Amino acid sequence: MEFQIGDRWIGRNHKPFIIAEMSGNHNQSLERALQIVEAAAAAGADALKLQTYTADTMTLDIHEGDFFIEDPTSLWKGNSLYNLYKEAYTPWEWHKPIFERATELGMLAFSTPFDETAVDFLESLNVPAYKIASFENTDIQLIRKVAATGKPLIISTGMASLAELDESVRAAREAGCEKLVLLKCTSTYPATPENTNISTLPHMEELFNCSVGMSDHTMGVGVSVAAVALGATVIEKHFTLRRADGGVDSAFSLEPEELKALVLETERAWLSLGRVMYGATERERESLKHRRSLYISKDLKKGEVLTRENIRAIRPGMGLPTKYLDELLGRQVSQDVAKGTPLTWEVI
After folding, report:
1. What is the pTM of this model?
2. Which region, left, alpha or beta, applies to residue 155 given φ > 0 means left and ψ of -120 to 50 means alpha?
3. Residue 180 · residue 152 · CB < 8 Å
4. What are the structural domains of the chain?
C-alpha cells in the first residue's frame, strides 16, 4: 500500500502527506489565491488542492425551494446553491497559474473535479492525482472517469455507508485505479471531534486494503495528529490566510501558523509510532547509569556487617541493583571499603 504522488511517497513508512485545500478561500482574487499558495508552501504542505467546477456544473440557476439553504445551523444559510457555488468557484483560467506557482515552490498541486468536463480540463493540465469529494463519493460515473486516467485517487468517505463505499471502491478499481486512498471525513462544517470517529481508520484500511487518511473539518490539529497514530497517511485541511478575512470556508480553515503546526506535529506523531519494543533504546543506554543502585554509605573495615545504616539505594547506577538489598543485609565485607564505593559481589 505504498505509492507515489509526483515525488511524494504515500504509505505508513513515510511521513504524512499534507494537503492544503484552498477551496473558495481565494475570495475571487487571483492575487490572494497565489498568496495562499505561497503561505501553504512556507508552512510545509506537500500539496495545494483546488476544486474544479462552475455554478452551472454543480446545480440549477434556481433560488428557492430545494435549491435554497434554509438550515439555521449552516454556515451558508440564506444562500441559494447557485449563488454559493458562483461565489466559491475557482475560475478555470486561474488553475494553470496557481498550479505553476505551487510547482515553483516545491509543492504538488491537483484538484477535485465535480463532473466529467472538469476531469477533461484537469487532464489538459496534467495533474498528478485526483480527489473525489464526499458529496460525490456515490457518483459512480465520475469515479470511473477519474479512475480511467490511471492516476492516484483520493476519495473522501463522508456520509457514505459501507455498502456505498464498497460500490465506489469496486468501480474505481474496475476502471483502472491501482493507487487509492480513502479519507475518513465528517461532512459537517465545522465538524466536532466527538463526531469524527477516527477509530474507523484501521478498520477501513483492512477492509479495503488501501491507504487511509483524514479529510479533517474539525478546528485545530489535534484530531489529525491522533489520526496519524491510527494509520492515517494523508491529511487534508482547508486553508486560508486569516479566518477574519471571510470567505465561504474560512470559518473551519487553518491559518498559516496552524498549518505549520499540523505539518510538524503529524510528522512527530508518525515518527513516534516506531515498533513494538521493550528495554533501553540505543539512545537510552547512556541513561542507565543514572538508575538507583546499592552504594556503601559509610567507611567500613574488612569483616564488618552490611546493614541499612551503611548501605543505601541511591543514584548513580554503578552498583548492584537495589533488588539485592535484602539478600546482602547481614553479609560481611571482604575488604576495607570507603564511603561512596559501589556495592559489588567482589566486596562481599
Report:
1. 0.89
2. beta
3. yes
4. 3-53+89-273 (3.20.20.70), 282-347 (3.90.1210.10)
